[in-house]
Design a protein that fits this description.
This protein has 544 residues and is an alpha+beta fold. It is built from 17 helices and 15 strands. α13 packs antiparallel against α14. The longest helix has 22 residues. The structure holds 2-acetamido-2-deoxy-1-O-phosphono-alpha-D-galactopyranose (NG1). One of its GO terms (molecular function) is galactokinase activity.
């Protein structure tokens, strides 16, 4: 299983990229980073951690419903060069001190030292005969992370946190993280839906593990690194579904990754036809996800969860009043999925049964319409609470106490149509990939991508006019299919293009999209580029 493999450590770039052409494309950037590190710190780095960004080929807004998704790493990445320093003997407090720099001039130097802080926890009495609560003082590692503003070093600190709290027991006085110097260089455009933040956190986690000699830890699998990175990213204030970190860590060249989150994290590489190239085009519309979360991302999460509860009740699926059941769990319970079975493509059941069960739930989505709802305009808060079968207090506690949402109507029916049909498209897409290479295969994959985009636009309302224009232009310019990738409301689209068509496709896209016309050189290649499924995160170890 891909998630159970160890983190790869390379001493040769050729092995890392597994392709001479790709190695040559990237070698200069690696050399420049090493030279720059030497200039700043007076010695060579000992390690370079690499973590790529990702695109989602298909399966949008369904990771938080716990359905499988099909992302892959892109070639663009974050590189973090680092080397431990010997701590001065008389400077005990310098253990763990970090000097972090970034090759991008807009990001200034940052220095920080983790502290051990006493943390008070309330524990229940140890035995039943000793009721009550005891206050226990435990030490925890602490680093200041300012989540009120976007700072590049917050992602570095977030990675450090996970390494400290998972690999250096605070109570152990001998457990001392090394002081270290690091230099970060990235060619992933930020804020464009390619998950540069997940790449930063994964890269930073790996750099701290490497410098502290923890990479060979027997329990450190790729899956474990994903779990730590998801936890770490929450420290920067993002509650993501897990897709981005899994894609950055587990991806393999030439394959998209079928990632499931239920019953447990599992990742199955699925080969794309050899002629298939993915082209990323940035709409250059910046979606400020944090600001719009209450009527966009977070609202979709709530609409999806409430819809799952209402359909579960309608279908007679068992659930308790305090459970935020997801659509994937409803589907599993309906099909009497066995817990603890080996997670494969169908999770705890055969793939064909999973598809049937999703279709069964999809057939019932009309039940999510309000009394007078005709065109999918949604239901009021009062009607939604009534349909959920909960009291207003219980509903608020379960669905609204942890997240801020704002809406007049809740579009439960249309959201369900998207989520369930998209889950089926993902399974279909990966089945078609098994058929190998042919024109028909490429066309069928493209059709699924187009349907996915239509569903994102029509049912999930997560596209925008520019993304619709760009995906339409891509289809007219020769793509088999094109769809928005990532959360949407701006950011990038991904198109499936035949290898021999890529050059003319890129030209047509540049000429056809107004916002590309004035872009040249690096600015253009950041906004419009071809990529193949690339390898996941790794560490390069310097041997001389
Ligand atoms: P972006 O915003 O593209 O990184 C977000 C979520 C994903 C997933 C997609 C929609 C974060 C960090 N990531 O992706 O988990 O839900 O939207 O498919 O919020």
């Amino acid at each position: 299983m891909a998630a159970e493999l160890p983190i790869p450590i390379y001493t040769n770039l050729n092995d890392l990229y597994a392709n001479l052409g790709t190695t040559l494309n990237h070698a200069e950037r690696w050399n420049t980073l090493v030279e720059e590190f030497e200039k700043r710190y007076g010695r060579k780095p000992e390690y370079i951690a690499r973590a790529p960004g990702r695109i989602n080929v298909i399966g949008e807004h369904i990771d938080y419903a716990l359905f499988g998704v099909l992302p892959t790493a892109v070639e663009r990445d974050i590189l973090i060069a680092c080397a431990p320093r010997s701590p001065a003997k008389d400077k005990e407090e310098a253990y763990g001190e970090v000097v972090a720099n970034n090759t991008h001039p807009k990001y200034t130097e940052s220095q920080f030292v983790p502290e051990k802080k006493a943390h008070s926890s309330m524990f229940k009495g140890i035995s039943d005969s000793e009721p009550g609560e005891d206050v226990v003082h435990v030490e925890q590692w602490h680093l200041d992370i300012d989540t009120s503003q976007l700072r590049w070093e917050s992602y570095i600190k977030a990675g450090y946190y996970g390494v400290l709290n998972n690999f250096f027991a605070p109570a152990d006085t001998d457990a001392k993280p090394v002081p270290m110097d690091m230099l970060v260089s990235g060619n992933l455009p930020s804020g464009s839906g390619l998950s540069s933040s997940a790449a930063m956190v994964v890269g930073s986690t790996l750099a701290f593990l490497a410098a502290n000699g923890k990479l060979e830890d027997a329990n450190l699998t790729k899956g474990r690194l994903v779990e730590i990175a998801v936890e770490n990213e929450k420290r920067v204030g993002v509650n993501s579904g897990g897709m981005d970190q899994a894609a950055s860590v587990i991806s393999q060249p030439g394959s998209v990754l079928y990632i499931t989150f239920y019953p447990k994290l599992s990742a199955t590489p699925t080969s794309l036809p050899p002629r298939a190239v993915l082209v990323v085009a940035n709409s250059l519309v910046v979606a400020d996800k944090a600001v719009s979360a209450k009527w966009c991302y977070n609202l979709r999460v709530v609409e999806t969860l409430v819809g799952a509860r209402i359909l579960a009740r309608h279908l007679g699926v068992k659930l308790d009043d305090k459970e935020k059941v997801t659509y994937r769990e409803v589907v599993g319970r309906l099909a009497e999925e066995k817990k603890g079975e080996e997670a494969g493509k169908g999770g705890g059941m055969e793939e064909s049964r999973l598809k049937e069960a999703i279709q069964l739930v999809l057939n019932e989505v009309d039940h999510l319409k309000g009394r007078d709802e005709k065109d999918g305009e949604g239901v009021s808060m009062e009607e939604m609470i009534e349909l959920s079968g909960l009291t207003a207090d219980a509903f608020n506690e379960l669905y609204l106490s942890w997240v801020e949402v704002e809406a007049d109507n809740f579009k439960l029916y249309r959201r369900a149509k998207h989520v369930l049909s998209e889950a089926l498209r993902v399974l279909e897409f990966s089945d078609i990939c098994q058929k190998g290479e042919s024109e028909t295969v490429l066309q069928e994959l493209g059709t699924l991508m187009n349907e996915s985009h239509k569903s994102c636009n029509d049912e999930f309302d997560c596209s925008c006019p520019e993304l619709n224009e760009l995906t339409e232009l891509a289809r007219q310019s020769g793509a088999y299919g094109s769809r928005l990738t990532g959360a949407g409301w701006g950011g990038c689209c991904v198109s499936l293009v035949a290898e021999d068509e890529v050059e003319s496709f890129l030209q047509k896209m540049k000429a056809g999209y107004g916002r590309f016309k004035d872009l040249e050189g690096e600015a253009l290649s950041e906004a419009l580029f071809a990529t193949r499924p690339s390898s996941g995160a790794c560490v390069f170890k310097y041997t001389e």
